[in-house]
Amino acid sequence: MPPEPFILDGWPRKVVKAAFYTLLNAETPTAARRAIAELFGRGREGYAKAGKLIAEIERKHPAVANQFGTGAGLRLMRKDSEITEYILGKLLRGGHFALPIHDSYRVPRQIADRTRAIMDEALAKATRKPTRVSMAISSAQVTDKTAKNTTSLLQNGLGLELGLGGGGGGGGGGGGGGAPPPGWVAWLPPGPASLGVLSYLYASASELDRAA
Predict the structure, then answer these.
(1) What is the pTM of this model?
(2) Can you say whether residue 146 is alpha, beta or left, with left for phi > 0 and alpha for psi between -120 and 50 degrees?
(3) Between vectors from CA 121 to CA 159 and to CA 139, what angle results, nearest 5°?
(4) Strand ranges across the sheet with 157-163
(5) Please, is 150 exposed, middle or buried when counting C-beta atoms within 10 Å of its C-beta (0-12, 13-18, 19+)?
(6) 125 and 203 in contact (C-beta within 8 Å)?
(7) 46-to-36, 40, 59, 60, 197 alpha-carbon distances in Å
(8) Which of residues 52 and 104 earns the better pLDDT score?
């Protein structure tokens, strides 16, 4: 992958990124071009711009150009889901829980090594290639909003974020991407109590989304 995969002279980065993922997810070249043309308003001019942009993206990404318009992105997303299902299922069967965020998993520190081993196992099973899991330690507090005092649900718990891949976090929370925002912590109590804490966190996040 080029260091700046969505930078092309004369094209807005947002448009290039949308076109790239459209090419990766579309099941046929025709469907890809039609969808990209809509970015420019369709019509003859829209299709002409779409064709030009597609050609430039193919030159920028020769390693994956043969996968454009084949539905490869959909298959990869399915594979990603299977990896997460494997990891979460194995942890749950052992009485543990993880909070998946993008391509990483937040877990209690005491099961970090176990989680890393399961992730290595899942990646090796899915890719049949040597893999590496990155790890970052973080801490935060979640305040109990239902109480009048400032008692913390999770008292300064140290948590671990383990990310899939070669150690570099991307733009959306990969391994080693720094401390999580307050409220997204990994120091979960054992057993079913974890589900209660996660429900609280998700409910809080929904309230924030509505307020925004």
Answers:
(1) 0.60
(2) alpha
(3) 5
(4) 99-101, 104-108, 157-163, 134-140
(5) exposed
(6) no
(7) 8, 5, 20, 21, 49
(8) 52
